[in-house]
């Protein structure tokens, strides 16, 4: 139980991530932005708030707030209330390294340890296998959520230098739509530390049976992810729950994949 609490403390929960994504992608004058920004600004004080109290504070109707919840990928306001109860934003739990007395040096030492651990743990044959599939597929969709979104975006950008275009849908609705529109010859690559990305994505809507028709690779810290019926291949990274390791190991793995692809592409075409 103690380990689970630490894990929850060092990563953003579902609701804060959704709200940050909204304010990044919505016009500041939009209703969705106003609601998301208000909840973020007052998150620590809204755990017992009612739908009426929040809608009044945002100067919107209760029905508008309910629509906001569904658009954000929540089932209803009740789920938002439960997510608010689960929010934990405490810096001592996030920055779990002794920075204050060492000018960050202990953090850098632990980073170097994580790099060595990742090098030892990575299955480079699996990476080569993934690279060959990436070369063969025209349509590739990258997924990630929370801290795992940046590695997906970084991989997308790096791959363009090797003439490979990939898509990274970021919003909940776009991710659902991308899966529903995907075809059997498309390739899906998902960064998910827990391995539960698709369970969370389809928690309130959509049909997970569609996943069985797709070719899905998962880059994950969960060694049991390959047991999921819709996952075809995995690249497993070591323990990835601390501030030092997450999302560093995802970032490094994405760079390794991009460099391996660039070398494979160069040899094949030149």
The helical percent reads: 40-55%
- The dominant shape is globular
Order of helices and strands: HHHHHHHHHEHHEHEEH
- Overall mean pLDDT score? 84
Rg computed from alpha carbons, rounded to a whole number of angstroms = 20 Å
How many beta-strand elements? Answer: 4
**Uncertain ranges:** 1-10, 97-101
Q: Describe the main β-sheet briefly.
A: 4 strands, parallel
In the CATH hierarchy, the third-tier topology of the largest domain is known as Rossmann fold
Give the termini distance in whole angstroms.
Answer: 54 Å
CATH class of the largest domain: Alpha Beta
Number of helices: 13
CATH superfamily of the largest domain: Glucose-6-phosphate isomerase like protein, domain 1
CATH-level-2 architecture of the largest domain: 3-Layer(aba) Sandwich
When the domains are counted, the total is 2
Which class of secondary structure composition applies to the elements? alpha/beta
List the strand order in the largest sheet.
Answer: 1-2-3-4
Estimate what percentage of residues fall within beta strands: 5-15%
Structure description:
By secondary structure, this protein is α/β, with parallel strands linked by helices. The chain has 2 domains: 85 residues, Arc Repressor Mutant, subunit A; 165 residues, 3-Layer(aba) Sandwich (Rossmann fold), CATH 3.40.50.10490. It contains 13 helices and 4 strands. β2, α12 and β3 form a beta-alpha-beta unit. α2 packs across α3 and α10 runs parallel beside α13. The chain is globular. It starts with a helix and ends with a helix. The relative contact order is 0.13.
